[in-house]
User: What shape does this take?
Amino acid sequence: MHLIHLRRHRLAALAVAAATATLIAVVLAMLHPWSADAANSAESTVEAADHRQAAAVRMDAAANPWAVNGVSPASLQAAGWDCLDVVHAVHCAGPGVFESVGSGTAETFTVLVFETRDPASDGAPFLGTEFNVRADLFKGQPCPTDPPSRQYTYLGPGGLDIGLDYWACHRFDSPL
Assistant: This one.
């Protein structure tokens, strides 16, 4: 009986450690400074972004580390992130990301998306991540994680028309 309890605690501790490590890795990857004058060429930047996207797709198939750790728009804002209601849900990005997107200097960026219209929500369900690439770097690649079209969504004129010259790949079943 005592051995069973030890195994349960060990498994629970391993699950929490794995979820925490995954969350830290994703947050650190999202906070990586992207700049227009980076040493990489546009092609290598898109290629690297594609590799990050593939890794995130694999991570999305695993346990949801945000739900496990109680991450919400409110907790992210308390940690210095920015959360905005955009089109159908709240999108949260690390400090400074939205400013670099607005200025067009962000080559790629990822946001966490929550099923709520309230950026101060403390209990909104986590929908998934959204990977975005600047239009001049987008090469027409498919978005295998965004049913039903499996295509990126253009955020500028002729697309969603939200004033951003970026293409978005939702890593969840988006209504767009």
Q: What stands out?
A: Residues 1-45, 51-63 have pLDDT under 50 and may be disordered.
